[in-house]
Design a protein that fits this description.
InterPro entries: At4g22758-like, DUF7054. Residues 30-50 have a biased composition (Basic and acidic residues). Residues 1-50 are annotated as: Disordered. Residues 53-136 form the DUF7054 domain. By secondary structure, this protein is an alpha+beta fold. The protein is 32% helix and 12% strand. The protein has a 4-stranded mixed β-sheet, covered by helices on one side. It is elongated and about 110 Å long.
Amino acid sequence: MPFRHRPATFHALPSSIPDRTMKIPRPKTHHDLLRRDPPTTSSPEKEQQQHRLTKLLLNVTVQRSLGPVHVVISPESTVEDLIRAAIDAYAKEGRMPPLVGSDPRLFELHYSQFSLENLDPKEKLINLGSRNFFMCPKRDKAATVVGVDSCSRQENERRHFTLSTVRDLLQSFVLL
């Protein structure tokens, strides 16, 4: 079995060399290395002002679009302001497909595409607790019901038309 040296620690050399009592010195550490100013007594209000957020980077994924739109906005802004900023950024970047309009009242914001609950347009962004959102056009309940009815009726008419066309085509081949 070959002889292996264990690495030395800060306090002693490996036990394989018992004669030496030499210790490796511990490296110097600087606890205040990242502190910008000398420690002073300050009030909690002053500390809160120093650590207050000035801008937020938020990601808004628009329905049927590839990738999120990045929006830098104030934390005191509302959900409606975020929707407006996301619409502006989406149009400025020339993304596809084009949006149905530029009015923020035509859209709603959700925490994710799987969340059914839309966010209140008057809610402040700092209170939401998330930086990723999903934006989609508002759905008019009456228009959706009518749209589904008319689409299913059109589908039935198209099937009827298609089947009769195939039948006529087959009969014409048989007669030839």
